[in-house]
Design a protein that fits this description.
- The model has no long low-confidence stretch (mean pLDDT 97).
- It is built from seven helices and 13 strands.
- Helix 3 (103-116) links the parallel strand 5 and strand 6 (120-121).
- The protein has a six-stranded parallel sheet, with helices on both faces. A five-stranded mixed sheet has the order 8-9-7-10-11. A two-stranded antiparallel sheet has the order 12-13.
- By secondary structure, it is an alpha/beta fold.
- The structure holds NADPH dihydro-nicotinamide-adenine-dinucleotide phosphate and oxaloacetate ion.
- Oxaloacetate ion binds next to helix 6 and strand 13.
- InterPro entries: Asp/hSer_DH_NAD-bd, Asp_DH, Asp_DH_prok, L-Asp_DH, NAD(P)-bd_dom_sf.
- Residues 170-256 form the Aspartate dehydrogenase domain.
- Keywords: NAD, NADP, Oxidoreductase, Pyridine nucleotide biosynthesis.
- Pathway: Cofactor biosynthesis; NAD(+) biosynthesis; iminoaspartate from L-aspartate (dehydrogenase route): step 1/1.
């Protein structure tokens, strides 16, 4: 560790947060996790970096100095932590992008960032090809369709259970088709990515999303198809689910790791 390390506050010590911190430590990245935000500081947390402060809410950021706050906690956690970080001029990276279907929240975050000069960063998360989609959307685009296929167990505890018996599925079932806004609002633990593809492309209401539970799948699959004046694109990823949460893909943690390391080093790739 050195005085020039990037100082990061990590909010959420779940599957993604703990994985990001573990990879940063294993790779000896020039990053210092100065605090970890959780809901309950009394609960036992394994693998915390040795010099980290465990804090229960944004009020406890008082006196902490950081460059970047990384949110990997949940939709409800975004507003309070994000506003506190941006108000301090810290950059903000968001994993729980489903929260951004709330136009008031997005406007508040942008206003706060503008006031202090901080940046709001939305990493591709479990997706790829977002650079191409975002570039393509500078010209007219006719359509973007995002298909998400996950093992049946990844939809447990979600609104998918209202429309099908996940345990009894013998073949893939597409249980939802609608806009990215509807997908992210109804499935905030599984369709944060719908907001990412929508924000990069043609927006929350024009981006079409299909959600499928596949009893034979072992990976989380994302397929994005887009057509516009730029041409066409199709990208498909088969993401390994994280051990700690089958709803979330390993690539999401790797995407946050990339963002953090890019800001910590001189080279951005
Ligand atoms: N952008 C993307 O591509 C993707 C985004 N995600 C999203 O990333 C987020 C993290 O995912 P994942 O790690 O898998 O989820 P987990 O459920 O494994 O972990 C979430 C953690 O956040 C903590 N938490 C919840 N609310 C708060 C709060 N208000 N303040 C501080 N900590 C809080 C929980 O703490 P506690 O111990 O108290 O329960 C838990 O440890 C989720 O919103 C998920 O939907 C997931 C996959 C892809
Ligand atoms: O990790 C993934 O594959 C996608 C995901 O859970 C989300 O967007 O919420």
């Amino acid at each position: 560790m050195s005085g020039s390390d990037l100082r990061v506050v990590l909010v959420g010590w779940g599957a993604i947060g703990a994985r990001v911190a573990g990879l940063l430590a294993a790779r000896a990245s020039p990053v210092r996790i100065v605090a970890v935000g959780v809901r309950d500081t009394g609960a036992k947390r394994q693998g915390l970096p040795p010099d980290t402060r465990l804090i229960a809410g944004p009020e406890a950021l008082e006196g902490i100095e950081a460059d970047l706050l990384v949110e990997a906690a949940g939709r409800a956690a975004l507003r309070p932590w994000a506003m506190a970080a941006l108000a301090r001029g810290w950059d903000l990276a968001i994993a729980s992008t489903s929260a951004l279907t709330d136009a008031d929240l997005l406007a508040d975050l942008r206003d706060q960032a503008k006031a202090t000069g901080a940046q709001i960063l939305i990493p591709p998360g479990a997706l790829g090809g977002i650079d191409a989609l975002a570039a393509a959307s500078r010209l007219n685009m006719d359509m973007v369709r995002h298909e998400i296929v996950k093992p049946a167990r990844a939809w447990a505890g979600t609104a998918a259970e209202e429309v099908c018996d996940l345990a009894a599925l013998t073949a893939p079932l597409t249980f939802f088709e609608g806009s990215a806004r509807q997908a992210a609002d109804r499935f905030p633990q599984n369709a944060n990515v719908a907001v990412i593809s929508a924000m990069a492309g043609i927006g929350l209401d024009r981006t079409m999303v299909a959600l499928t539970a596949d009893p034979g799948a072992t990976m989380n699959r994302h397929s994005i198809t887009a057509r516009g004046d730029f041409g066409t694109m199709t990208i498909t990823l088969e993401n390994r689910p994280l051990a700690g949460n089958p709803k979330s893909s390993e690539l999401t943690a790797l995407s946050l790791l990339r963002l953090i390391e890019n800001r910590a080093g001189g080279l951005v790739i």
